[in-house]
Amino acid sequence: TGSSYVAQSGDSISRILGTSDPQAVGNFIRANGLTSSHITPGRNYFVPNDATAYGDTLHWAKPYSMETTQD
Q1: pLDDT along the chain (71 residues), means of 10
Q2: pTM score of the predicted model
Q3: 47 close to 1: Cβ distance less than 8 angstroms
Q4: What is the four-CA torsion angle of 40, 45, 47, 53, rounded to 10 degrees?
Q5: How far is CA 59 from CA 1, 5, 24, 28, 69, in A?
């Protein structure tokens, strides 16, 4: 579920969503079939209500451990 939004001049995905959360931005891009973050004024975009509706969590940002060695 979600809502529609007609983009205005100067809009960005973050501005439309009200957040710059990478997961929300990625899901907006997927939900609208975009290949970049470019927003076209006058175009109608779908704004998902749920930030996780169009993808999984940030699988590429999983925590990792760093091992250090001493010389």
Answers
A1: 94 94 91 94 93 53 44 51
A2: 0.71
A3: no
A4: -110
A5: 23, 28, 14, 17, 27
